[in-house]
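quick one before i forget lol
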Amino acid sequence: MKINGIPTRTIRAIDNGAAVEIIDQTLLPYRFEKRVLSDWRDCVEAISVMRVRGAPLIGVTGAWAVALAVRENPENEPLLKAAETIQNVRPTAVNLQWAVQKMLATLLPREPSLRLEAALKCAAEITQADVETCRAIGEAGAGLISELYSKLRRPVNVLTHCNAGWLATVDYGTALAPIYAAFERGTPLHVWVGETRPRNQGLLTAWELEQQGVPHTIIVDNAGGQLMQHGDVDVVIVGADRITRRGDVANKIGTYLKALAAADNDVPFYVAAPFSTIDWNLNDGKREIPIENRSSDEVLSIRGVDRSGADITVQLASAREAAANPAFDVTHNRFIKGIITERGVFAPTELCLAYQDVIESMQ
């Protein structure tokens, strides 16, 4: 995608893989700055504090973290210790564990002296595969928006939640990929952007859409249901951090409420995600998906800029208040019309059939 008209990716290797360069997303949408991660611990910190965020990008960053760990020490014990730390830094997004395990499966059969070259090659392949996968998700989902336009003969109103655009991936995005693809085809559309408290990732979505020239409007999280009641939402498309084999979906907190409102108002609810987000080992999302609980500070305060553009943090409630901060919730498959993947659009219960070859390869 483009920033100020310049094609840009969220992460790239530099210095022949001695470091990676990321966009520091904790500074967006107020400042666009890049940051160099030259140590696998830098990658862990970036994932933890959400300098990089979004399940696919977290996975790719984890892959490069393993490569940097190999550069530091390719022997089994330090490599496995680093990998354990990397894959557990954020527990809900399965892409991180998937990427780390894919790296280890490539590296461990090799002699330590041969691991660095293999690590750089595998991390680069994971990075490029994410780009191609997200492009395919966009193509698969754009047809849904085009079909709606052909029926409505007016701009299609899409509601999304959190940020599942190119900032959450290496490029193109997941939930926003169909929007970008449809917009590039000339399909008239408009996006309702939920702010997504407490981290306000919706502001990143709005920043992305502005950069690409896509019509959009920011709304408070609780406005989505009211818009659906009045016929102002034609389709909901969100991303995912983990999907079970039966199609239950963990995504940013508040997604479940959007799905309930969509079901009550006959608005189709779609999830867009790559195959690496599907956890074939889990079935019941509510019972089995681990939900990350983050700091209460994210709820009790809010970050922004003042009139001069200086960074400020504002306390919203007394520091003595208790605050719960579950980062994700789970939406049961019965509320989901379809899951958009790089292979097409499937009913949640059709995932196993669509990826039967993948499942068989794991057995």
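fyi The mean pLDDT is 96.
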